[in-house]
Amino acid sequence: MIWIKAVAAVLVVIGSAQAAATTDGQPNDAMLSFTACRKAIAEAAKPYTPLIIEATITGPIQRLFGGTRVTTLFVRIVYDRLGGHETRRAHVTCTVDSTGVVTIEPRSP
């Protein structure tokens, strides 16, 4: 399981090196997909001043014809709000097409 946590614009990756790279040291397909999805989620949340963004892959990455990759993620975002923090959680489907375009859609757990 890999966790990406963004705290006050500092990214911290928590996970195993085996999950993040192949034996030749190159990022594996799963990590590339995960990174693209996490980056798209962070960009979408940015206007709402997130304090913390956590995401984890919850299922296998499906490789579709033409190079498209689809995976499911569980995302937790903590926002700074007047009077305290607001936490949002969601299961999402992330699709990364062969050109690198990312689509995030909510899904049922």
Give structural attributes.
single chain; about 110 residues; alpha+beta; seven-stranded antiparallel β-sheet; disordered N terminus
Could you write a compact summary of the structure shown?
With 109 residues, this protein is of the alpha+beta class. It has one domain. It is 19% helix and 48% strand.
Summarize the structure in words.
Helices cover about 20% and strands about 50% of the residues. The protein has about 110 residues and is α+β, with helices and mostly antiparallel strands. It has one domain. A hairpin with a 5-residue loop joins strand 4 and strand 5. The relative contact order is 0.18. The N terminus is likely disordered.
Question: How do the strands and helices of this protein lay out in sequence?
Answer:
Blueprint: E1 3-7, E2 10-14, H1 17-20, H2 29-45, E3 50-57, E4 62-63, E5 69-81, E6 84-96, E7 102-107
Antiparallel strand pairs: 1-2, 1-3, 3-5, 4-5, 5-6, 6-7
Reading the helices and strands in chain order gives EEHHEEEEE
Instruction: Tell me the number of helical segments per DSSP (H or I, 4 or more residues long).
Output: 2
Main beta-sheet strand count, sense and barrel state: 7 strands, antiparallel
* Count of discrete domains: 1
- Quickly give the structural class: alpha+beta
What Rg, in angstroms, do the CA atoms define?
A: 14 Å
Q: How many beta-strand runs?
A: 7
What is the molecular shape?
elongated
Distance between the termini: 17 Å
Helix content estimate: 10-25%
Uncertain parts? 1-21
- Strand portion, in percent? over 45%
Mean pLDDT: 80
